[in-house]
Predict the 3D structure of the following.
Amino acid sequence: MKKIIVFLALSISIVFASFITDGGYQIGDKAIDFKLKNIDDKTFSLADKKDAKGFIVVFTCNHCPYAMKYEDRIIALNNKYSKLGYPVVAINPNDAVAYPDDSFANMKKRAKEKSFTFPYLVDETQEIAKTYGASKTPHVFVLKKENADLIVKYIGAIDDNTDNASAVTVKYVEQAVDALLAGKEVPTTTTKAIGCGIKWKK
């Protein structure tokens, strides 16, 4: 009887573990490309960046205090790595009906105020955020081009200090991209994304 109970408990835990990891990418998965509207009113796809070695995909938004604290750091990431083949691509997945601050018009306004140097896309259906498994703003996915595929190499936070950029001790995204550029394994592949929960449509 005890063996049956243990077996059932183990089976339930396996099913539960599968459930909580379902619906998002894991390290080593092939990521899909997408076609989303950019703040220049044109459709953007990762395939447009033919010379890229990979991408720093950041799910973010306008109104979240955490996202706002990271804006300058996201700009710095693009300034540093775009020329090395890993440009930033920012995506706003929030429900703009419930949160008007995250409307497309306000995305344009915010990008102009902050002089964004990277695409800032709107995920109107929220399908890309769901497919990738994004849950916070900001939430980062570092992708590496391997032949025709986009392979997930890092998922999580930008660094280890949300509140104070000058107090950061570990720059997770920079570590990941530096390792990929050097042909090495990413030292830390996953971290917990810290930010506001994505505002899903009801």
